[in-house]
Amino acid sequence: MTNSAPVSARRDLADAPLLAAARGETPRHTPVWFMRQAGRSLPEYRKVREGVPMLQSCLTPDLVCEITAQPVRRHGVDAAILFSDIVLPLHAAGIGLDIVAGTGPVVAEPVRTAADVAALPQLAPEQVGAVGDAIGLLLAELGRTPLIGFAGAPFTLASYLVEGGPSRNHERTKALMHSEPRTWHALLEKLADTTLTFLQVQLAAGVDALQLFDSWAGALSLRDYREFVLPHSRRIFESLTEWDVPKIHFGVGTGELLGAMRSAGADVVGVDWRIPLDTAAQRLRDAEPGRDAPVVQGNLDPAVLFAGWDAVEREVRRILAEGEAAGGHIFNLGHGVLPSTDPTVLTRVVELVHSITRR
Ligand code: CP3
């Protein structure tokens, strides 16, 4: 796929707070969006998803458009994130897997040997054509709200494929990495290609920013991350440098990996609640002293949304102060919205962030 032709289709949203903040400029207010803002916390989501399996809904353009737009309408967030899933491109490529409610992705035949890796199918762009179609609908629907595209990073995808489903300890994944490094790197190379294809389809269709989710990378030591993961994630970012859109890199429990994750080629680093944003930014500066000031995204603990408004407000104010000290800041949770979250609290968080930071 070429990177040049469809760029003119991209909307000019230069003054959108999300994009200004991601470029290190001063936005008119601190932008705020929430990972998993589209989903089960919203009754309007549960209604339209009734009877439609998750992966099927991700390949139904008008449903993707509706679900993606729901939290923008309801909360007034500064960005939409495409309704999809990190395992969608694997499914679209023909790998047998399902998303089981309450569990997550479950893989029919886990990938554990060199022969399994060699047999893995690669994603062709037309297999996710429906995602490009959905993005086309969304650009018309969203007006001046930026649309964030995303994909799973190779390590997090590999963990699902090797373990066969969600894993607490990632033991089979780490065993493969350490016992058969050549097979491991071959697997991550294939997954990086699939992720790249999925992101290029989204970029060609016109997404305004993208986020690479390496949700479970925090399970790794910095040494193992650098050796077994970083080269593959870096290849993804480097292959996308021609696309002039902000690129966000996020993982959970990655306090020790933040510098390495930025060095992969990210403009913005997502941070969970375990580390204050100003400390995170200092680590990013220390890791790459020659680079521009870092921009961080985060990092309200999603569980705090259950603690009553006084606690939520206190935490939002603390995070905004730490974000101010960090330099550039995009407000978000430290991980996804939990399904039983009261959505009215999310709307109040958006209003609070905007009212405190309006310039
Ligand atoms: O609003 C958004 O953030 C966009 C949609 C989105 C989904 N998945 C929709 C979804 C995004 C960005 C993802 C990414 C994703 N998927 C990640 C990375 C983000 C993270 O949470 O760290 C991961 C690890 C997955 C894998 C996955 N898919 C899990 C763990 C689950 C949850 C299983 C469950 O039921 O608790 C899914 C399913 C999923 N993806 C749902 C949604 C809305 C729930 C499915 C449903 O509503 O039936």
TrEMBL record:
Its EC number is 4.1.1.37. Substrate binds at residues 36-40, 85, 160, 215, 335. This is Uroporphyrinogen decarboxylase. It is an enzyme of class 4 (lyase). The keyword Cytoplasm applies. Keywords: Cytoplasm, Decarboxylase, Lyase, Porphyrin biosynthesis. Belongs to the uroporphyrinogen decarboxylase family. Catalyzes the decarboxylation of four acetate groups of uroporphyrinogen-III to yield coproporphyrinogen-III. Gene3D superfamilies: 3.20.20.210. Signal peptide: none annotated. It comes from Saccharopolyspora taberi. It is found in: Cytoplasm. Pfam families: URO-D (PF01208).
